[in-house]
Amino acid sequence: MSSPVLIPPAPVPGPRPPDYLAAGHTIGSWLLTLDHKRIGLLYLFAITFFFAIAAFAAALMRIELLTPAGDLVTSETYNRLFTLHGVTMVWFFLIPSIPATLGNFVIPLMIGARDVAFPRLNLASWYIFMLGGLFTLYAIVMGGVDTGWTFYTPYSSTYSNSHVMAMAAGVFIAGFSSIATGLNFIVTIHKLRAPGLTWGRLPLFLWSMYSTSIILVLATPVLAITLLLIVLERCFGVGIFDPKLGGDPLLFQHLFWFYSHPAVYIMILPGMGVVSEIIAAFARKPVFGYEVVAASSMAIGVLGFLVWGHHMFVSSQSVYAGVVFSLLSFLVAVPSAIKVFSWTATLHRGHISLETPMLYALGFIGLFTVGGVTGVMLATLAIDVHVTDTYFVVAHFHYIMVGGAVMAFMGGIHYWWPKICGRMYPEWPARIAALTIFLGFNLTFFPQFVLGYMGMPRRYHVYPPEFQALNVLSTAGASILGIGYLMPLVYLTWSFFRGRRAGPNPWGATGLEWRTDSPAPEHNFAETPIVTTGPYHYPVQP
Amino acid sequence: MSNTLTHPAASPYSDREQHAVANHLGMWTFIATEILFFGGLFASYSLYRWAYPAAFVTGSKHLEFWIGTLNTGVLLTSSLFMALADLAVRAGRRGALRWSLLATWLLGALFLGLKFYEYHLAAKEGHVPGAHFRLEVPQAPQVELFMFLYFAMTGLHAAHMIIGLGAIAWLLWLNHRRRLGADHDAPVSMVALYWHFVDCVWIFLYPLLYLVR
Amino acid sequence: MKAPHLTARVCFANYAALMVLLALTALAARAPLGAWKAPVSLGIAAAKMALVFIFFMQLRYQRGLVRVFALAGFFWLGIVLTLMFADYLTRGWLP
Amino acid sequence: MSPGLAFAFSDWGPGTASSVAPRVDLIFWTILGVSAVVVGGLAFANLYFLIRYRRNSPAPRPPLRIKTAWLESAWITATTVIFLGFFFWGASVYLFAERPPAGALTIAVTGRQWMWDIRHENGRREFNELHVPLGEDVRLVLTSEDVIHSFFVPAFRLKQDAVPGRRVSAWFRATKSGTYHIFCAEYCGTAHSGMVGDVVVLPPARYAEWLERGNAMEDLTQRGRRLFLRYNCSGCHDQPAAVHAPVLTELYGAMVPTSDGRMLRADDAYLRDSILWPQKDVVAGYEPLMPSFQNVIPESDLLDLIAYLKSLPGRQPPPAGPGESSRPLPP
Predict the structure, then answer these.
(1) What is the Cα D95 distance to its own chain's centre?
(2) Structurally, how many domains does chain A consist of?
(3) In a domain, C95, yes or no
């Protein structure tokens, strides 16, 4: 198998096994499925629903911010809107986005396995996720929560008069679905790799998912116990975080950020993995410095646990702790920078084509880099004091989470779409949507960097009039972004049923997932594939 | 947790050995998760013990030292029987398996009984944090914090024990239906790992809560 | 699943050791150890846990990967405690 | 939109009015410059590669002659060195900004939902306004009575959380006379975005004059009394009145029984809630007659009203915070 890549697999003799979509058409065949591919799609439906809710909240906020006065909604409503937006986007869209949909769908395919290690646990994780979602929806319907997604104490534990307990319970429950997913992936990647698929031949998406899974498994329980403590504090009136009763509100921040900073890497690491796959496939070249890129994923996963205190530079934590956390934050930025350089070097002397997944991947590189360099500014102590809790931070993390994670998610959906439904999405509408999203995104969030440096604090319902011009620009961008997100919803749905048939390997990409039919057969492979080469075995070698 | 059902279509494994190793890896990953889950409480405990050492001594003196010590012994003994159950299933001895599991279950129940008796004593004396907390000692708010940590940590541990008792009952039922054996030992090994781990949590709770002097 | 296995003899010996340690820690709690009390009781607890992990939970008979996973939780808990106390212990200090 | 636009382009930025501000700006612009070079370089390289190495271009693609390991170590080292440089620079300015100079003027700042309560050394008190002398070191001692707030003056590049139960200091030296925004930067509840005010930097002589002019507290309560009459609170709550309504003297700090059997302490939050949402905690023995004043009384008037109610003869609330502790969480 010197160059197995561009040749589609030999047709399997005998009758074709049914594909996973044809394996059953009843509702029960979906809701009780143990097939990782169907579970991936169940997640896709769920997170699309939550994305729509959260995006609606964002739209209302942006309209409210068109004028300095609070004229569309009251401040109570506004505070509930941004909490709803944050909680839903973070825990019910971004965290499960790439891991639970694309990860579930492609990890077993990429390692040549029939399924994940614990298929029942996998299905259970979806139900746990939905149960958590129900609690959250209940909290929203009953009137919402006004604490912000960060649930800072003692506001959340003592002062807030909103449905904190229901929403904390929702996030608590959803956390166990994260843990189950992470555990499943760790064991799957360790134990179910096809013969010959050594760690040194593992596609970079799997390296990043492995690192992500470690974070899911080791960080999420700390969030769970922290939210449980808030619920207990509200129930029983004890003061674990309440200074009036001897508690320390900063303890909450330590425990919360111990989870929530690594959680940022749960969102972005899988995105980096997707982008590595796409860049290699559309430049027809191995990713430059494969070993270093793989190692940087692991380094980010581990170092990401050591930097949480940079969210607390002005919180009155010790000055020395601030200095240590600042240093560690700079160190975690190094592996991210390495990845960006490596992707650019991969393009060098490649055979590049610009289909939609590649457009998203390139968009990711640009936006993630802007998010990264502004992250370096935020790691710098003196600058952070000025811009933390302002729109500068809002813009920074949207560049990472929307410009990074969501762009990669969209890229991945388009890239693996033929494998998901056996059909191609329409190319030109998809390219136009990608460009619309890119432009709308920048117009929405770039002005917010300026706003933040000028001093506009985040979570402000009314603001001084000198900030209006930039807010209007941002809202204009958001409306373009909204249209950009509606377009894929329409054409992807259409192409799922009516798109042009795709062969097993429409991109001419390497990777085991392209060596089986599209859509994938119910048990993935007619016979267990054997791997004899490294990943990205394209004709061009560096 | 343990994925023992081998529906042919669902099983991603090629052989039993691979399945067994995957089960162990999964269970140990779960235990790592649990360490961090309890870890949040241990971290809070460390902070407040460091901040309020005297209050923690006061609080610890209000716990029932003998119940705590006795319970530690009960749990260690239950762990012994759980380990023996693991040996029995691998040797395919159904009778020994039944008796060891039964002993483990009863000791676990005894532990919970003693624990709830202790809670009852605390409630009667008004040591439960919250609106009804009554303790006329210096630094009462900090002592209340200790009592809160005591209830949170032992309560979470007790919840794990209850889940463990359910799992052992399930094993007894499986054994009764002749669905456990030398070539089908995964459910017992997995529950055993869980049970021993919950035991280890108590091994730390005991000195942290009862032996602060 | 891999030889050598845990045996009943090892189980009973391990149990005896655990009970001795329990008696020791209960006695030490009443002994005049002063500042050493907490380190002694936690040290004994760590020893007991090590015994349970190594024998009852059969880490002794497991391959390296499982051992690494068993220790990972403690390592990460160490990160929580170390960096959290890096804040609290240095709070009073002025630059 | 035009005034905003004019501001955005004519006088960009938050203003530079403290001794630390230019030092922060210098780091910011330096990192921004370096970042622009890196991002621009990457963007250029990517675009160039996209065009030159498009799939059907005839450009030659010989194998790379440099060792990849060499390239990688080069950019790993370069990145690390540059980052460490930024770290040391940022940390040194931060440590300078965190070390309060000896002999600074000390002003106590208390955050409270949703106002800043500021006390000067001579006892003069002001709300949501902070008068400071130009060119002198000023140390703020921050705390909060309820939730976490954050004292943020963009023009000074100064931000520090005010944490309940702790006293934290922050300092600055104003370098330009004028009026600058104070924002609360840590989300603190319903009227978070209303928890704003102004720093007024005065030349030292005028500051001294201002400080001596007397206690602002009197002005505030007098204004509160006027508002009490204007909103016709007095129609029911002053004695004798036609309506059966609670008397408000000796109220602040007392425990109040509610009609549903709870006991509440009449603190600021209680007074505020009772004005805005009177049906929430109806006092035992009274009919729920009072209308809601939400969206009727603006925030500033509300503060004055509460200040007036607090000035009525009454009890003071007990000091907040834990009792004696052997090792308090250090300040």
Answers:
(1) 21
(2) 1
(3) no
Residues D44-100 pLDDT 10s: 999 999 999 999 899 888 888 888 889 899 999 999 999 999 999 999 999 999 888
Contact B67, A255 (CB under 8 A): no
The pTM for the full model equals 0.88
| Cα gap D239→A301, rounded to integer Å | 68
End-to-end CA distance of chain B: 39
Distances (CA, A) of A126 to A40, A120, A147: 9, 10, 27
Q: Residue A10 has which token pair?
A: 């030999």
Q: Is any Cβ of chain A less than 8 angstroms from the Cβ of D128?
A: no
ipTM over 0.90: yes
Asked if the Cβ–Cβ distance from B12 to A237 is below 8 Å, we say no
Over the stretch A40-90, which tens digit does the pLDDT of each residue have? 999 999 999 999 999 999 999 999 999 999 889 999 999 999 999 999 999
What is the rounded CA–CA span in Å between residue D195 and residue D213? Answer: 26
Q: How far apart are CA D268 and CA A294, in angstroms?
A: 56
Residue C81 lies in a domain: yes
DSSP 8-state class, residue A460: -
Enclosing domain of residue C43: 8-89
**What per-residue confidence (pLDDT) applies to A15?**
62
Is A115 part of any domain? yes
| Fold match, D105-214 / D218-311 | no
DSSP string, D50-88: HHHTBTT-----PPP-S-HHHHHHHHHHHHHHHHHHHHH
- Rounded to the nearest integer, the mean pLDDT of chain D is 83
The answer to whether position A533 is within a domain reads: no
- Long-range CB contacts (within 8 A, 24+) of D66-69: D68/A288, D68/A289, D68/A542
What's the CATH number where A345 sits? 1.20.210.10
User: How far A540 CA lies from chain B's nearest CA (Å)?
Assistant: 35
More confident: A537 or A378? A378
Report whether the peptide linkage leading into residue A426 is cis, meaning its omega lies within 30 degrees of zero: no
The Cα D117–Cα D129 span in angstroms is: 9
Class of domain D218-311: mainly alpha
The shortest CB-CB distance from A353 to any of D55, D84, D190 is to D55
Nearest by CB to D68, which of A289, A315, A453? A289
Domain-embedded: residue A145: yes
Residue C2 lies in a domain: no
Q: What is the DSSP letter of D327?
A: S
Cα–Cα distances (Å) from C8 to B106, C60, D100, in that order, read 21, 15, 67
What's the mean pLDDT in A302-321? Answer: 94
Residue of D301, D153, D140 lying closest to D228 (CA atoms)? D301
Closest CA to D165 of A239, B137, A312: A239
Query: Cβ–Cβ of B25/C12 closer than 8 Å?
Result: no
Closest-CA distance of chain C to residue A217, Å: 10
Query: Quick one: chain D helix, strand, coil %, rounded to 5?
Result: 40, 20, 40
Q: For chain C, how many structural domains are there in total?
A: 1
pLDDT of residue D46: 96
Quick one: pLDDT at residue D12? 61
Domain membership of residue A295 as a residue range: 27-515
A321 Cβ under 8 Å from any chain C Cβ: yes
What CATH topology corresponds to D105-214? Immunoglobulin-like (2.60.40)
Nearest-neighbour CA in chain C from A471: distance (Å): 37
Query: Where is pLDDT greater, at D277 or B174?
Result: B174
Residue A33 has pLDDT above 70, yes or no: yes
In a domain, A6, yes or no: no
* 3-state class (DSSP) for residue D139: strand
In chain B, the domains with their CATH numbers are 34-210 (1.20.120.80)
**What is the spatial distance between Cα A51 and Cα A43, in angstroms, rounded to a whole number?**
12
pLDDT category of residue B42 using cuts at 50, 70 and 90: very high
Of D98, D99, D330, the CB nearest to C91: D330
